[in-house]
User: Fold these one by one.
Assistant:
Number 1:
Amino acid sequence: MLIDGDPLSLKLLQRNISVVIPAQNPGVVPAAVNGAPVLAALPLRRRTSGWKLAEEGACREDLTRLCPKHSWNNNLAVLECLQDRKEETEIAADCNHLLWNYKLNLTTDPKFESVAVEVCKTTITDIKECAAEERGKGYLVSCLVDHRGNITEYQCNQYIVKMTSIVFSDYRLICGFMDKCREDINTLHCGSISTGEKDVHSQGEVIACLEKGLVREAEEQPGAHAIGANCKKAIMRVAELSSDDFHLDRYLYFSCREDRERFCENTPAGEGRVYKCLFNHKFEEAMSEKCRDALTTRQKLIAQDYKVSYSLAKACKTDLRKYRCSADTNMPRAREARLSYLLLCLESAVHRGRTVSGECQGEMLDYRRMLMEDFSLSPEIVLHCRGEIEAHCSGLHRKGRTLHCLMRVGRGDLGAIDNLCQKALQTLIQEADPGADYRIDRALNEACESVIQTACKHIRNGDPMILSCLMEHLYTDKMVEDCEHRLLELQYFIARDWKLDPILYKKCQGDASRLCHTHGWNETSEMMPPGAIFSCLYRHAYRTEEQGRRLSRDCKVEVQRILHQRALDVKLDPELQRRCMTDLGKWCSEKAESGQELDCLQDHLEDLVSECKDVVGNLTELESEDIQIETLLMRACEPVIQSYCHEVADNQIDTGDLMECLVQNKHQKEMNDKCAVGVTHFQLVQIKDFRFSYKFKMACKEDVLKLCPNIKKKVDVVLCLSTTVRNDTLQDMKEQRVSVKCRKQLRVEELEMSEDIRLEPELYDSCKQDIGRLCQNVAFGNAQVIECLKENKKQLTQRCHHKVFKLQEVEMMDSELDYQLMRVCKPMIRRFCTEADAKNMLQCLKQNKNSELMDPKCKQMITKRQITQNTDYRLNPVLRKSCKADIPKFCQSILNKATGDSELEGQVVSCLKLKYADQRLSPDCEDQIRVILQESALDYRLDPQLQLHCTDEVSRPPGRREVRLQPECKKRLQDRIDMWSYAAKVAPAEGFSDLAMQVMTSPSKNYILAMIGLGVCVLFLFGLLCGRITKRVMQEQKNR
């Protein structure tokens, strides 16, 4: 408000300008001045230089009521007071017309222009555009208003500021605006040109109407009118010139006057401060819809031209010039001016480590947050996502909720999304760059505030690591559901452009340029799109030195961090989701738990389409090298890792050691169900391809290519290699064909496979029906199902029986592969068999079976294995080797009758026992049969034939005195007695008393005693003879 003591320029203006109000007959429209008609409200009078608005009767009443008395002598002060009244009823119509004529004549009067020339002499000379303007048409003052930001003269500046408030009070006073926009105003029906048809104070709505038409055209709304290029420039210029003081945007000023008092009462006008304050409160409940609408329109204009924001243009002016953000001559000027282009250009500088002023970064942060809060500020989203918004996201426009809803649609959670809409969302995320500061995303910030305060309080507010911290706590107790949804919606888009993770970009931009041939931060390449860069980085992350160039250490750490995050949700891996969309729907649509989709795809690996199978295979291969990528599994297994595997877990480079450690400790008390299931799942996946076992692959790669080409499944590779090792051993080859390092790892794989029947697919498939019938309540793991099948061997189907027999044959040849035996007898092995070969562990345990120190459970397990061995000579490697000549010689008829798949039920062993009684076996074979007889004497179950034929007799209840034996059972018992008798005869005496007892009880006692007596007599006679000869020799020597 002007008061006495105005600057010199304004006093000069008051003193020298005479305002002419032309005389007209009532109701006659005067000639247009500068394209605008002038209405006469008063009779003809010549106004002297001392004329005052306050003295006019048309405005006297309003002036007395609304304006302070000390301002009455100052026409400009009166004008300012009266023109800022909002309600039409506040000021009389005649007064409005008087004010209009005064302002119009003021801006076009040559004397007014002469004041400008006098006050702004130096400025006009400096501003060439204004010096060249034609005088006498009001263009000079308009030019000075346009360039008011460059005016340094104090008096000139004060003069132009005051004239600006007059000029912007009505669009018709803006020089040239009417000429450029007359046709568009009429086409869009934005209002009347004469004041008689529309109130003067609503003339700001005409510009607002044009601005909305400009926005509709940018959004390509149906029926949008194409505004002329000159008018478009004029509209944007008006918006730009009114950017520092919200009073100059008349429509917004009147729409938001009450809201300004409510929210921004203490915010001083100027430099766009009021605009920013109102923008910050745009979505408050108390904000009026009319003001919110006006603010949105202005924000949309800012999105089209950043200079419409005074504070942003001022703060970033130097940085824009410094980083050549307006230097691309090939780019249309309209695109250069767009807010998105400015943000991308300056964000690129920040990401490259260049210095951008703090003031500019602060402004960028505000406008990035603004873009994330209101989707309607992005014309591409309004245009391309209209269908998705109407179908899924209507009514959610406040605080970024619509944008997150669209992100959710983009993830595929709510249905399909148009490609153009998806692209528009991706572009907006890059422009807003919320990965650099989570606070930009208001919806995420509000949803995750409690999680950040508890789980991430150690991280500085606004730090990019906040998002990583939130991802680390995904699916944990600290995470809340709303935060989980908002986080995954945002991460879905960040994951599709590696540059949107600022930490990854900072650490890896050098590697990406060196290895992946990337361009600048905001540049793209069809040959290497953003999504492909990360794939390139992680391929190099796990290369060995021999394989070529590798990532730097810092970059590899960040790549591993991203891989850990992606493992939490299959949709965070763009390549996996793109290639496996069909398979995910087909096989994994019923997956209830989040983060389990990859496990599901791995379970159905053989059923996947080829391109999905490839990407799942690559990820699985990567996991085998670094299982810590499996974040959920690592969380579940933390107790076991801390107790048994912390040393390998702490290694920067995991080469499969951690998973091997978890497998070895799978049955420790610290192992919980989730961890056990996860470890078993990975074991089951590994058997599908030997590449999925990193240590096995690295140790045996050359051996597989040489000895087992074209074999892919791990179980088949293990079988191929182990068969080769076994054959080489049996043939006593000087040099094993399988390398030492491969044999060592092969042993690890064989031991792991023996723990769970599911790790041997051929056996599992053959016995699946039997497992369901006989072992349905037996848990997998610890070889319990295999043991159950062994115990029910007689009830198995033929196919399963054959596979179990083959398994037992392998286990008997190599006791270390007998998981149950090694587990149950582990303490006894440490006690009795520390020096024994692991492959011969059963033999050692059998020798110590009857020791008083033997554990009962282990003793029972040894007995089971002895019973198994006696059922078929092929299950007793020692007997088989010792009797390899005797079996074909004496038991060929049994072998001829048996088929290759059938079990001999102890017939060969019984055959050998009979030949033992006949004393026809070779010494080695006889020794083994004697051991078997001695063992079976203590436990009838060790004689399979006896158990088979005497089952009924043995199973009869006790108490019956007389048991009638069946002929076959009786025969078997008699054979057993005969063999014991013979064994007793040939058994060596353990002492003199044992020897005397055997002689006295022998049927050949007399013969033995006679022979002993004869021997004694012979010795006596021999001694007597030798004594006499010795005596004679000694006598002869003495006589000499």
Number 2:
Amino acid sequence: MMKFRFRRQGNDPQREKIKQELFAFNKTVEHGFPHQPCALAFDPQLQLMAVGTKSGAMKIYGSPGVEFTGLHRDAAAVAQIHFLQGQGRLLSLLDDNTLHLWELGGASRDRGGAKSEGVVYLEEKRNYSLLGRPGLESCSASRVTVLLLLRSCDLLCVGTEGGGIHFLDLPRLSLRDNQSLLLDQVMQSVPEDYRCGKSLGPVESLQEHPKQPGKILIGYSRGLVVLWDLSTCNAEHMFLGKQQLESLVWERSGSSFVSSHSDGGYSVWAVASGNTYTHQPVSSSIPYGPFPCKAINKILWRTIQSGCPVVLYSGGMPRASYGDRHCVTIQQDKQHVTLDFTSRVIDFFTVHTTDLEHDYDDPKALVVLLEEELVVIDLLTTGWPSVPPPYLAPLHSSAITTSCHLDNVPAKLWDRLAAAGNSQGAQPGVRHAHGSWPICGGKNLAPPPRQQELLLTGHEDGTVRFWNVSAVAMTPLYKLSTANVFHTDCDPNDDPLDPTNDPEALQEEEWPPFRKVGCFDPYSDDPRLGIQKISLCKYSCRLVVAGTAGQVIVLGLSDEWSDHTVDVSTVDLLQDREGFTWKGHDRLEPRASPAPFPPGFQPLVLVQALPPASVTSVMLHAEWNLVAFGTSHGFGLFDYHRRTAVLARCTLHPNDSLAMEGPLSRVKSLKKSLRQSFRRIRKSRVSGKKRPIPTPTSKIQEANAALADQEEVAPVQRRIEPRSADDSLSGVVRCLCFADTYLRDGTHHGPTLWAGTNSGSVYAYALEVPGVGSGRGRPGGEGSGCVEAVLGKEIQLMHRAPVVSVCVLDGRGKPLPEPYQASLDLATAPDMTNPHSVLIASEEQLKVFSLPKVGAKTKFKLTAHEGCRVRRVAMVTVCSTAQEDYSETSLVCLTNLGDLHLFNVPALRPQVRYDCIRKEDISGIASCVFTRNGQGFYLISPSEYQRFSLSAKVITEPLCTVELERPLETHISDDAAIPLRANGTHRNQAEGLTEDPQCGLSSPPPLSPLDSPLSMADVSLDTTGELTVEDVRDFLTSVDEVENNLRNITEEDGCSLGVLIT
């Protein structure tokens, strides 16, 4: 046999230019709630809020769409943040005892073909490390405990653990020599009987006098409070407290202040002229006494013109009864509310009047930063209700298990979802205010979104949340709960009422007067409720959600309340197959009696797969009224209009006993899988060391290799070990696809169903759908006969690699349109005159087959060329920045190494490659979802999505500005001059990284940090339900696998121009 090899063609300059106009990788914005927040600050002049995290990230928020993000060079936790009010500057204190000065700077950027002027970004300007003074203070004594920024913003007071106070000039961050206030100077003014040989302890609080600049209140841990005059450097007044101090706050007039203590009480002290010492406070109170209480960590005292002052404090709960509660108390005269949260209180502040000309604070809102969410309370409305946040919603209020994206959402569906979301409000028993969002600084310069986009997230508690991701701010739109379809331990209809609306609760006078606030609820009534797959048809308003216990629910959108019983159908995927016994969890018990369903998506039919294993794939075709679903045992097809099962196919291998154990045996299965993986590695190493026996054929190969050495060598390929047919979980159905194409012959097309499994098998069924092609109407129309399914083709991939995706291409090589798109003239009709083809993506390669004969047309061996495995596949359409009417459809692949590969279709020529996710971030790779317009989302923490774009034109990122009292330092940028950040965080910019399509993929871009401020943080691996044993196996054995592949490089394709004899 003779093979002819030709030299590769050089790069086409015209094609390279087109690629640069089409593709550009950008990490744009982080949606959701910051992971592990630990610091909070507010600028009342600019109306901006700052949040610091344990990973060193700095995030600034204003009005919706106004966001700035920065990242400290060292991954240390942010201990404190303070704004230089009105200047767009802020100070951060890290737990490594370093101070950092940040600034909002201006830039002009050209992005997506449009130039944006006045854009502001966040960057670090200076830093300072406070070291101990030799002979005076040890390192621990110099540790910073509290910061005070004077109103003049030119002086920073730094309190330390050793009791000393240092002063730094701003904004230079330079220490004032010989002006530090040491503990010895303060002790000289303390009465002898108060000293008692005891230290005053660390500086706990520093507060500037509200009316007399230059005077500060210094609170020491032991209880001593000193009013210090900075101009004369002496103690003007001393308040000899005897209880351990936690915090201080001034009353607005400066005539008194309040101190909170470790015994759960607070005291009011009068600042009177004349006496140097005050021994007793004016009043003291332990609100939740007399039994021992926890400390009041922070207290605020806000005056109101129309009534009594408002006292707000965190902590103070009775230690024995409610010591584990996370609370903030609001008191005003006889009104008393204890806000009860489900996560730890980090910090809080009030939005109030700060103008010195006003005599009262008149607070408008209370903002509480919790460990898992942000809660805002309206203080102007009776009852102090909460305000729904337009951003920073806790995505992980229940753990995210799956996600789904929809673009170009029709206006009618959008309005109906918004109306349903508004009608359901928030959680039962929690009242919400209708006032405006109090954090409203900055100006959003981003143009209005071109289309409405939805991100659907499935959660562990059986809920599906709909998020508006059309712009930078990720806003909750609607929440669907599936728990009321089943009998559970906690009936959602029996939720407790709001105590303020319950007369019996009012008569009992519960103390403390708790009120549940916030929506973070990490606990699930039943883990079987978890949502695993979602499919939504935006034109027919049909939704399918599938869960952990084999439940598949078909829902329709309704604008009215409904009380009805949900129809239930079962589909046995084992079909009475002998030798298999399900050892996992039981199915959920459906509710037999009618249940109330609020406006929104309401269940039409429940399809229960048996055995009740977790659903691994689902696909909806609303135009045919069909839903297909797959589990680890097989796949089924259901006609939800006629309520009949069409097909049940078992995909289990005779040795696939692991699939019958269920998720409760996951530890055992993981061990077994890893053991088998290591055995294969050892086997391949041993086989690689064996020397081949010299044969005439091997001599010919040596001659061919010598000839190849004289020519240009093509890319080498790694040898791929075929997978065993009896591998565990080989019957898992990974993907499903509906298509109207040619399967039986080349002249008649019709509905088909495609299913791909973990063992590399693809099943293609020809469907007989009554009414299709003969004027069938909209869903719900009457039709005669039943849907029938006949096996048309069965494909077995050579190496038995799991099938990740199946996509049918029309005669032009384009993906078929979604259901209803062609019939409603919303998309170009598919080409049905030329032959179709099917693109099958496995974990190891991409391959295009012709239809109906299923003959191989072209392929790309991704694992052989790159040593990686495919994890996610999608078809995306990217538009050119130079030509409005030019676009290309490409195939994007995310691999287990976290990089993105783009190929054109159907030729499968590599276009570009980008580094996207760290290969160690298994959870992020498993959670990635692509959009049709070339964007994507993946979890960088349990509560945050990172958004990225592959399109040079479609980019959703913050474009905002802030009016400052100082001039902006403006930079001119063309995306390559100023630091390229995802609005502040480090980002890879790899535009135009291409290579010749015939020679493989481009080389990786220069090494740089992979954007996320959580790159060194602990992120749990159970944030998505799609994390598989294969993901963990790839991560643990990646190093050995690479070494093994490099040893087994073949020389089959190692030659170019010449004649090879084989």
Number 3:
Amino acid sequence: MKAEMEKIVSLSDGDSTAELQEYLSSLTDDQLIKNVSKFEGNRRRRSCILKVWYLSGSPPSAPEGCSRRLLLYQHCIPLCESGDLQADVAADIIGLLMLETHNLPGPSLAQLASLFVEAIKGGMMGSGKSLELFPTVLTALAACEAVSYGKGELSGEEYKKQLINSLCSSRDVPLAPEELQFVVEKVLRMFLKLELQEIPPLVYQLLLLSAKGCKKQILDGIISYFKESMDLEVQSIPQDQLRHVEGTTILHIVFAIRLDHELGREFLKSFKTSYGELCPFSIALLLSVARIQRYEEQVFDLLKGAIIKSYKDEQLQQGSKFLQDLLPEHCSVAHMILDTVKNSVFGWDHVTQGLVQLGFFLLDTFGPRPGPFGKASEGSATIAKSPTQQACKLGGRILLEGFKVHEPIRGEILEQVLNRLVTKTASPVNHFIELFSDIVVSAPMILLESSSKVTETFDHLSYLPLATVQGLLKAVQPLLKVSMSLKDALILVLRKAMFSSQLDGRKSAVTGFLLLLKNFKVLGSLASSQCSQTISSSQIQVDVHSRYNSAANEAFCLEILSSLRRCLGQQADVRLMLYEGFHDVLRRNSQLASSIMQTLLSQLKRYYEPEQDLLPPVKLEPCITAQGDQVFLQEPLAHLVSCTVHCLLWLQSSRPSALRNTDDSDDDQDEEEEGYQSELQTILESMTRRMIKSELEDFELDKSAEFSLGSSVGVKNNIYAVLVMGVYEVLIEYNFMKGNYSKSRFEELMELFNRYHKLADILKEKSGKGRVLSKTPRSLLTMGFVSTLLTMLFRDSTLSREEALSVLRSSGEFLRYSVSVALQKIQQLEETGHTDGPDGQNAEKTFRFLCDMTSVLMWRYTNIPSVVEEAGRKEKRSSLSLLCLEGLLRIFTTCQQRYPDKMAQLLSAMDDDTEPDNGNVTEITFFYIRQFQRALFTQLSGGEEEFNSKEAQLLVSILSVLSRQLKPSSQQFVQMITWTVKICKETSFEDSAFCKGLLSLLFSLQVLYKSPAGLLLELCQDIHSQLGDIDQVHTVTEFTIFRAKHTSSLLLVLSQVDRVLDEVDWLIAKKKTQQALEKSSEATQTADQQDPVEKAVTLQLGTLLTALNELVQTALLPGTCTDTLLRELTRTYTILTTLVKYVRINKLFVKLSGSHLTPQCYSFITYAQAKLLRETKAIPNLIFSIEQYEKFLITLSKKSKVNLMQYMKLSTSRDFRINAASLDAALQEQDGSQQTQEPKHKRRKQ
């Protein structure tokens, strides 16, 4: 052996390498290995042998040389791992091998790499020294063009990936828990260094590894990578590539959860405690997991909680400047879900089904609920404000966006929406109708592919609630214009419904037929710009006449009209719907005028008295019907006259030029139109003249008439009274519009009003006696007319009209009536979103009327102060100015609710000498705020005798509404707060309602400017000073608004205390969640550092404790205020306990709560027990919460080794106490009972 080695050395020293190669070839593998092993301890000889073997004796170009080099690697790697070599010797060997690795051919590198993989999997890596060589081998392998793999070949790069994949599949490697955690952390850190396409295989191997443990760590790491890291790389990575990688990863995770339910439980558990960690990727993952049945309910409950919590957090943060400054902008879960919908376009079929389920889950869970007696509340959809409304809206948006981008789910979405419209008859379905309408507008042609589902829904129309039918037909109307089959199916259903035994079914038929008449124009009708409604779908540009000729349309419409005429013999509700719809039909289809007007004329003649000498001119008896003892309205006569008048006025105003320009061929038609118009005018003129002459006795409605709803005669008289009043109102509007500012016509109008007013007074007088209609019937005047009337009464200064208008202006009752009707119309608009009569459904025109009214009412209020109107005061009712002010308040409130984006436009419409900049909402709003501030200041400047409480309350309410338009960061907002604080400090009127309103305004402004805690402290100090101490009275006050003992104002202050506690509680909850998620970072935080949230909580609670310390020393009146304060104290101590348990607390804070507040609390408890004179749960609850706080302080003292209890003063009010008087009374009672029982005992013994 020694001789062989010496010969190798001597040959290496020579110049001929051929002899060395020949000699090495003659040796066997065992001999070569033995020669290396023989000289293991000799560092110099080993290095020499390795260099000679490589450089001289084993050229890589020769197969034998490659074989000897590979043999050396295979021998040296286990040798270095054995631990038998010294560290420096092993390092030298590895270094020499690394230098020559790149010379190895591909097959040798593949064998060498496999050697490493097998050693790692088999746990044969001892010291790990040779692992330094492994990356060099992989790098050299990746540079190879082709490597044999199985029966084929792979590139070096692909072969390397296969090795890494095999290596990562370490399920068979035995690992200790700490070793497993180390491996997982190492692999997760490598995510950022890998190519995007390498992530899914690595995720797959990690999930296989999760069977051994670290489930939460693996899932959190994968999700956090896609949440945080992708945001940095998204600019350089194509979107489709990124989304496909995310989709593949989601499939891997879902597959792993299907096989390992423990992994699924860990997955859901991690989200239940960290809603804030949601992201589009994790939401998509949750929705995919929801496809597993056992997790479906849990996932949707979790997402429901996350969505509601997100909206509540957003609402809380938006309503508090304190929270806005303290925390960053809220990250909306709703936006993440909608992003998930967008991302799902990239082949995420496993997510789309979950999105559909989530959308309907939100709509079903958070949709509107039935009102009283199961009826849906009337009104159109308004802006979603509450978290539940926003969640419902989100469900609709998810389904709408999903419908647009995913063809496979369109049929299911449409079917489920229509099914709910048909089946949910007991609850409102406005949200489903809105969704269906949005689907029709966004994708009408796509929807036509599923028209059979819509046709099936039509079959149920006669059985659905009327509101559902109206919404459904309005939503589907764009489809009717492009689908003949759909229109024919609807007509067939409506014809059947016309003969339905159910009233709602017949009303549904009328609704459908009117809709068809409005939307299928006959050629030759006037331009649609005069219509009161526009087609809801701007995407359907179809000329109906190119598909159906005008003759067919006209025949179709006339056929419908003939069907509708049958309704004139049905119930009043059906007739009413017809009268309310005819006007819109006429405006859309003016070619149908003759048929419509003839129908109305013939119907009106049934109730019109043609004999000119007879009074009254209308027959009321046919308008009612009786069934046994019950009396019902049969014909809504006033609405019939109203419909006739408005149709006639519209025809006369819109068609004079058209009539002049017609050809001779249309002369017969023109004569016919002129004939019925003339006849109608004659009838209306006659009705006006004779209604003026008619006395109430002619209608059997004088003061002696019975109006009690308990008898059939009283019901009949009530119906008659409402009909007559309605006819008077319609004739008032007709005569004003036709009067052309003639004094005589306006005098007739006033005569009509006087009759109306007299009847209204009788009804009002009788309303206090028995069961009578106490609510004023809804006025039949249209909103457009009321707007015009108010403008003429208060703002028209045209000299030619002065004489005629003076007739109307001279009547104070008529002025009050006009403004009162305006108030009624505005209220109806606020509640339902529309008004009665023409243009009532047209949002644009209605808003224009609102603007006109606002201008008039503002001018009337500012130019004629209420103090001038002594008559209104003497009659103990609101003056005209107060009615105008109430109208302004209702208009501002309605505009904020129904037209939130048009507030500046509304204010700009109020003409004034100084016109502000219309482009700046804050500027124009503050301009009018100053006017109302001056009016309120004028009220407060006078004495208390001149103070008008109702006007002051209205002014404060208006200021409160307008202040919402100011930006909290603006200078005007600061000025508003300053002014409000000044008024609160200087106001001392004994009016609790006004004081409460003023305080509400102050608090609403304060929370948007800064924390109200400081203001609460000042207010509590003043309350204490004003109401006095429990045993002593103070008289120095700053806010004189508390001069009166206003319970409502005190409760308002306590409600603000509760609001501050809400914010503190919310912050502590967020801090708890943050601590749970960041335990590692918390460990590195030094004791001197204080989190900004902790600091803010400490300052808020510190100020609040000082404020409560003032209140518990105050001699509050027994009752609600005392109970509320006890509850707020209980909640305060509960929050203090939570603070002690989860957040650090300083000594000063403990001292403030323990030394100052707690003793005063026990004194207040004693005071409350003496004053309340009844048992209340608030007192024991408060004592329990104080004791819990002290308990956890003791625990914290032991942990921190700081005696925090030295600041707590224990009270004796919790101790067992003996009431001497009660004890004596009980003992005497016991003695007396024993004396009476003694004889009985003796008799028993005998």
